[in-house]
Amino acid sequence: MIYYSYFVYILKCxxxxxxxxxTNDLSTRFDQHQHGLNKNCYTYKRRPxxxxxxxxxxxxxxxxxxxxxxKGWTKAKKQALIDGEGEMLQILSExxxxxxxxxxxxxxxxxxx
Length: 113
Known about the structure:
This protein is α+β, with helices and mostly antiparallel strands. It contains 4 helices and 3 strands, in the order E-E-H-E-H-H-H. About 35% of the residues lie in helices and about 20% in strands.
């Protein structure tokens, strides 16, 4: 049986934005971004680039799921992932809506003092 590796990666662009992608050859894909092979790519006008994060998967579906998940994150949450700040990821993931049970004194899930 042949095993493949898939990588979800985050690039930091020259304008300080982040680009998230997926590949089965991280080195080649980074070079393609860095050399601007595709003029329609988000990173083309934002070079030079830095590889800030990558995670390896052996299941392409898991890699695709993780990539889509990251693409929906805020810049701060992506930065926390890059920095390895698990606690900050948790904080940034929490709902901040005032109606959330954590902030609602009438909620049954909150202890009243």
